[in-house]
Amino acid sequence: MQDKIRAKARELLETGTVDCVIGYERATDGLTARPVFIYGTAGVDRLVFDQTCVHNLSKFLLDRRDKRTAIVAKPCDSRAINLLINEGQLARDKVYIIGVVCQGMPEVSWNRVSKEPQERCQRCPQRVPVVYDYLVGEPVEALPVTFSDVEQMENAGPAERRGFWLEQFGRCIRCHACRQACPGCYCSECFVDQLDPTWVGIRKDVTDNEMWNTIRAFHLAGRCISCNECERVCPVSIPLSLLNRKLEKDVGEFFDFQAGIKAETVPPFATFKKDEHLKGVE
Amino acid sequence: MSQVIAREDLSRWLNSLMEERTVVVPVVVGDMVFFRPVAKAEDMTISRGNATLGPKGCLFPLSHTMFTVEQEDGDVRVIPSSLEREMVVFGLRPCDAQGLAVFDLPMLAEPADQYYRERREKTALVGLACAEACAECFCTSTGGGPHDARYMDVMLSEVPQGYLVQAVTEKGKKLLAKAPLKDMAVQAPTPPDVPRVPTDGIVAAMRRTFADKYWSRLADRCIHCNICSYVCPTCYCFDIRDYQQDGKTHRVRSWESCQAPGFTKIAGGHDPRADKGSRMRQRFAHKLLYFPEEFNNVLGCTGCGRCVRYCPVNIDIREIISDVQKIGGG
Amino acid sequence: MSPEGALLPYVATLRDVRKLTPDVKLFSLELDDPAARERFSYKPGQFAFVSAFGVGEAPFGITSVSYRQDGVEFAVRKVGTVTAALHELEPGAKLGVRGPYGNHFPLEEYRGKDIYIIGGGIGMAPLRPVINTLVDHRGDYGRLVVLNGARTPQDLVFSDEFERWAQSPNTRVELTVDRGDEKWKGRVALIPAVVAELAFSPQNAVTIICGPPIMIKFTLVELKKLRFADDQIVTTLEAKMKCGLGKCARCNVGDKYVCKHGPVFTFAQISGFIEQY
């Protein structure tokens, strides 16, 4: 797979189809990967692809909106690209997508790679990118979708749920890494930084933290593509995906919608139809 | 003859300190370790490595009310906050204690920051020497070492009989007054080897590389997540905002990172560090150039390795120091 | 200085508010505590933080002259959250003042020199105390020219003081606007063009310039054409600030803190900054 990616990158740079290839290279631990921007054919051999390439690179495309860029995209990453195109943040013709088929990725952090695949990879509905210009890897079947983690939380009583989340948010240090890593979070002024009005302040107490995390989850409702970057980067291990997945499950049930599958479909909260009803709601 | 405290006596001693002081110890939470105040010392953990977040938050809180402003019948009072109880921080590593010594330089320079100074004066540091180095730490290249006791009040080192105890300061001696210490002939443990990073001459090399496009290339993959600044024992940038609560105004100070977009943006809209490259460069220029030039060659980095461990895109200060030496090499 | 180690503001009462332009108001404050009033002495170029309690705090150049009054004045342009809150206040309201901070214009070094003061828009605020000090000690200095520009005639900030300044010996006040109106009979031109037109001589002179970055940039070009040396051109820099003491590590341009080493810098100093402003 790695060789095919390098060959394609070389070709794209040589022909001037793109000015930059965003992919992965080896990190300083000699074990895991990190994002890399290759601007010329001389750098192409730095590109790697293996099971440590867990990062979602699609957000970097927003730093290069007017320039032609190639990007290595796993299936979840490709959904993010569709989302950004749909929301007018990217032009499809400026992006060359090197799609990579994915059999699942382990938990990866500095100098550590787990033996088991990530929990989310074990229930992944897309193992082939939903959009690409060039496909690397043989197609594999999708896995059955389950929301058992969300259901478990739904079945717990309100007091138990509240206790769980307050303990999680109590650890939040408001670094906002989750927002920075999320391809759906690209507002030029985030609500949490606004002064006028002050929706959530800079104070790091649990009520402010709760507001921050839950409002961000709501802003992603119908938009989150489950790349799990938020949870991966969180330095204090808050299970952020669980929040987003609850909303993903609800949006799926009410609107029969999943984000990022097709670039043309507008997310439910960005549409208004006069005669629209929620399923099962009067 | 050395003084030793047995492992089983350690909790007893810390518990006795709790009568008059808040005792902060490393505590396990999931697969992480945080410094937290405890009601009983038995809740602490003594792990091999270093805690997820250091004890910087004990002296420079993540967020706290500096003062309140109360208005009543046209009369306005400004009421500063203060720390009620003395504090003991137990189990910190030399890199974190050295981080506090680095903090002292800007914070205690005249006019000294009152909130930090009060906490510093009321806090005693009981450190734990490192038996092994992590893959990413490099304290010996930043003027420190795994057994460096200079910045502690009391230093403990693990030995087969328990912990070798060294009272470093008068404050430390007082703290140990009622500790169940035993006199024993014990050999001090050998410090572990710590990987080296080429920091000699880094200040001059940073000055020479300042205008290089290395910084903007490096910043390509930075996502400005702020994690590096938050896990760093020496980062001290802060934000100040007002809150209204219970009819009072709280002026709150909290951690902030120079990596955050908008860190330098003025109300009129002008932003001198709008581009990623200049923000990236600011972080390393502050630690490896401006800080040592202002404070007598003390680096703004203590080699704890946390930024290396937690950066989601592997921006590695050790690699940067190496690169800067190559590019700006004299 | 205020008990600045704790970042505590002095409590002050708003004595007077005067609207100078559609978006600029002049605030006159008096510190409540008499001992604080004694301690709060400042020089032209210094700044202070003004708090609208409950909303926030922001740094402003002090626009009054210390020896002329007990209180302190700020010219505040409504441009953000704190300034908007300040603009809502009526006389009698309580505010916070923290400072004075920063360095000052070294007027002692300008004795005997010709002084050209160039101010654009709200940039006149830190220049007003300089002009007033020079006018009050006229004999100590050479020629004085005040060139003030603004977008429109309504935006000329201290228009009620022009006459007093112009009547001072060996002093000229030159005005210009980007856009005139039916009543405006004066110059309609950008400041850099007026600098070229007036063609100041750099001989034994110093020029103090303050205004929007773009105005400074182009005016610098004209001043260099007139052969002003970098150490003859002085300005005051703006930066986002929180502490004002050089501790929060936010307002630095390279290794210089605008709050501590500035805000007054010569262009010779600014050119020597390792980081570009």
Termini distance of chain B?
49 Å
Secondary-structure element string of chain C? EEHEEEHEEHEHEEHEHEEEEH
Number of strands of chain B: 12
Question: Biggest interface: chains and residue counts?
Answer: B-C, 49 and 45 residues
Query: What is the helical fraction of chain B, as a range of percent?
Result: 25-40%
Which percent band covers the strand fraction of chain C?
A: 25-35%
Tally of DSSP helical segments of chain B:
11
Low-confidence stretches of chain B: none
Strand order of the largest sheet of chain C: 10-9-8-7-11-12-15
Overall 3D form of chain B: globular
Mean pLDDT of chain B: 93
Fraction of helical residues of chain C: 10-25%
* Mean pLDDT value of chain C: 93
Poorly predicted runs of chain C? none
Layout of helices and strands, plus pairs?
The complex is a heterotrimer of chains A (282), B (330) and C (277).
Chain A (H helix, E strand, L loop, with lengths): L1 H13 L5 E7 L6 E6 L30 E5 L1 H12 L8 E6 L5 E4 L2 E6 L16 E3 L11 H8 L2 H13 L6 H5 L24 H14 L9 H5 L6 H16 L27
Parallel strand pairs in A: 1-3, 3-4, 4-7
Antiparallel strand pairs in A: 1-2, 5-6
Helix pairs in contact in A: 4-6, 6-8
Chain B lengths: L1 E4 L1 H11 L3 E9 L2 E6 L18 H4 L3 E10 L2 E6 L5 E7 L1 H14 L6 H8 L1 E6 L25 E6 L2 E6 L2 H6 L6 E3 L17 H8 L4 H6 L7 H5 L6 E8 L2 E8 L20 H19 L11 H5 L6 H12 L2
Parallel strand pairs in B: 2-6, 6-7, 7-8
Antiparallel strand pairs in B: 1-9, 1-10, 2-3, 4-5, 4-12, 8-9, 11-12
Helix pairs in contact in B: 6-9, 6-11
Chain C lengths: L9 E12 L2 E8 L2 H6 L7 E6 L3 E6 L10 E6 L3 H7 L6 E8 L12 E7 L3 H13 L7 E7 L11 H5 L4 E7 L9 E2 L2 H8 L6 E6 L2 H13 L7 E4 L15 E2 L2 E2 L6 E3 H6 L5
Parallel strand pairs in C: 7-8, 7-11, 8-9, 9-10, 11-12
Antiparallel strand pairs in C: 1-2, 1-6, 2-5, 3-4, 3-6, 12-15, 13-14
Helix pairs in contact in C: 5-6
